[in-house]
Every structure is written in C-alpha cells, then in structure tokens.
Amino acid sequence: MKSFKKLIAGFLCLSIILLCGCTTDKKGTKKFHGYEFPAAVYDGISVEDCYLYSGEYVEDASFESCENVVALKVKNTSLVDIQLIRLKVTTDAKEMMFEISTLLAGETVVVLEKSKQTIEEKEKILSIDYENRIFFDRDISLKEDVFMLQVNQKTINIKNISQTEIESDIYVYYKKKDADGNYFGGITFRTKAEGLKPDEIKQLPAANFDPDNSEVLFVDYAK
User: Which letter does DSSP use for residue 195 in this model?
Assistant: First the structure.
C-alpha cells in the first residue's frame, strides 16, 4: 500500500512538472519550455526566470485581469542605468516581445509580454535576444538638493527647496513593485508639475501610485 501511495505521488509530481513546462536541477538553474534560466542575453543583462503570470496586466496601464501571460524576470547586472531595452523571445511557433523602460543598475524587473501572449504546453523556446538598448545620457536621481517629495495614495507632493525658481516642466517618474521587491512591469509612469517657485508645493496626480507597491525612481526637468 505504501509503495502504491509513493507511485501515485510520483505521478502527481511528474504531472505538475509537465503542465508548467519547467524543471529545476540541483545547481539552481531552471528549464522552462526547453530553455535554461538564468540566461545571459547580453553583457549586463540577465533573464533570471520565465514563467506564466495571471493577475493585473500593467504594461498598457489598464490593470485589467489577464491569465497565463508570459513573464520575464530581467536583471540589469551592469553599472549603467538603462533607459529602454526590448527583448525578443523566439519559440518554435512564434515571436514574443518585451519592452522595459527605466531599469536602473543592479535592479530587477518582472515584465509581461507586450501583446499578452501565452506559451503552449509543447512549445519550445529557441532563443532570447535584445533588439535595442538605450542608456540614459544624463544623470538621473531624485535631486534631493532641489526637491522634497511626499508620496501618498494616488498623489505625489513635490516642493522646491532650492532658492531658484524652476520655470520648466518637472517630471516625476515611478514604477510599480511586486511582493518580492522587484519592479513590476516594463512600463514607467510619470506625473508633471508645470514649474515651481522657491518653497512652493504642488500636489501631482499619480493614479497608479500606491506607497505600498510603488517607488519614485527619479525627477527630471530642463535646466
């Protein structure tokens, strides 16, 4: 009877592996639809994982429910901040595209396939490549010597703490985060202040901002 129970348990484990299309070895690497992860795509870019995601679809800012969309977990292992990178996953049946904006050095993001594609049970991943990669051509930071930020539910307050009036538009960029602390979504959101006088405070609309799962990345304006 015990042998029969062990046999049933073995079949169940095998069934789970076949359904998700993934296996894990003792070295910590994982195969998902025939492709081994982590995978170095290019110097400084590593795809740490690939899996099917169900939940809110963030890439088009709709936050609509989606099921079994292919997701990549991508890490910027370089010392340089990336402004934009596009990745292409090629299988034996199709191509899938992933677009990431604002991936800071050392950070990790979970990005969802651009057109909500899934991957079929017997489909094999053949390659993962990048189509283009753009680095920031300027310093990006919170500019804490110029601005003070206060984040709230769906709003961000910004104060000019310098002694100089800023007449140009000021943009505050932010991303969503997941429960593991990774950026969630290739999309980067932004909100705008139309100039700030010294000591002036403005409340900016940020419909997708939640202090519990969002992070301000940088502030930018034309000097």
Answer: E
pLDDT in tens, 148-190: 999 999 999 999 999 999 999 999 999 999 999 999 999 999 9
pLDDT of residue 42: 84
* Domain spans, the chain: 25-135, 147-221
β-strand pairing of 39-42 with 45-57: antiparallel
Global pTM value:
0.86
Residue 78 has φ and ψ, to the nearest 5°, of: -90, 180
* Cis previous bond, 38, omega within 30: yes
Distance CA 181, CA 67 (A): 22
Cβ-contact 105, 140 below 8 angstroms: no
CA distance 167 to 196: 6
